[in-house]
Backbone:
């Protein structure tokens, strides 16, 4: 059976057997809920229905996550859970990492401990998965604070990429130029969350000023043909998370998700999970949901799957 056959037969178990990438995964919320239940006794229920406000998402987070995992052992359990989920789902390329503030909070300000924790979990739970270790930044943090945190990370070749996330309006994207210049010097793939809540033009601005290789979300690009052309011409990849976009009210439904138009125009797109525990959005389900909704054909989805397994061309 091929991946196309598995989709057409709507066989989720078969879909899971085929290699897939997950390039947009926040590991704290990316774990396997059965694994967490077994290890902790906590049952984490995903959100049902479209959220009416971000306060609803905050309420969910407070109920199920809160401070429950705010310890070194808790953090390591979430890392384990994410590898367990990826293995279960047939993910063979997994891009995850720690927020820079987490180094002091959970890893004793020891970068070697942080790196070894991820690598050890990878080897112990899912040795066949290619780990692409990421450095995470929050837009809410002052630049000087982030620069100080990053002093521990620079020069460590184990890191593959850097990603900026959080409220797109927290502070001007230009503030992060010094960080991204240093990240480029370190040979990192440059990524940022843009165009989930912001505009199409915000995407172009971020790509230009930070020299991004990839954009997390980027779905707002669909509103502007010039932006679509810009992404194609500059070979900027969009790592899209369909269920997250629908449940956060960024698109009306899966059938009308902009990934179809972006893909058919020639934009480099991938399909990813975002926050599995919140959105019940493992990668195999994302492919199946897009197929069942008639958003993309099985053949198109297979091409996107294979594309996600290839390395992006860095600038």
Residues:
């Amino acid at each position: 059976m091929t991946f196309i056959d598995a989709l057409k037969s709507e066989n989720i178990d078969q879909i899971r057997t085929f290699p897939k990438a997950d390039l947009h995964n926040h590991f704290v919320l990316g774990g396997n809920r059965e694994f967490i239940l077994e290890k902790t006794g906590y049952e984490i229920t995903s959100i049902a229905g479209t959220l009416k406000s971000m306060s609803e998402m905050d309420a969910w987070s407070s109920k199920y996550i809160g401070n429950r995992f705010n310890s070194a052992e808790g953090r390591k359990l979430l890392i384990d859970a994410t590898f367990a989920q990826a293995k279960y789902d047939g993910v063979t390329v997994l891009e995850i990492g720690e927020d820079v503030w987490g180094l002091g909070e959970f890893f004793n300000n020891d970068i070697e401990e942080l790196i070894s924790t991820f690598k050890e979990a990878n080897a112990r739970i899912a040795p066949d998965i290619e780990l692409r270790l990421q450095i995470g930044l929050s837009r809410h943090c002052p630049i000087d604070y982030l620069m100080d945190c990053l002093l521990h990370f620079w020069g460590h070749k184990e890191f593959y990429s850097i990603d900026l996330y959080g409220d797109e309006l927290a502070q001007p994207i230009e503030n992060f130029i010094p960080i991204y210049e240093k990240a480029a010097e370190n040979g990192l793939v440059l990524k940022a969350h843009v165009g989930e809540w912001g505009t199409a033009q915000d995407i172009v601005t971020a790509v230009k000023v930070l020299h991004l290789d990839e954009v997390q979300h980027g779905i707002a690009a669909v509103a502007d043909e010039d932006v679509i052309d810009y992404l194609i011409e500059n070979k900027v990849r969009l790592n899209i998370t369909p269920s997250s976009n629908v449940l956060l009210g960024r698109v009306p439904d899966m059938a009308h998700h902009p990934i179809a138009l972006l893909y058919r125009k020639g934009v480099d797109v991938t399909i990813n999970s975002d926050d599995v525990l919140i959105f019940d959005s493992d990668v195999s389900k994302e492919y199946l949901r897009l197929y069942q909704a008639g958003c993309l054909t099985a053949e198109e989805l297979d091409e996107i799957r294979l594309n996600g397994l290839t390395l992006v061309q860095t600038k």
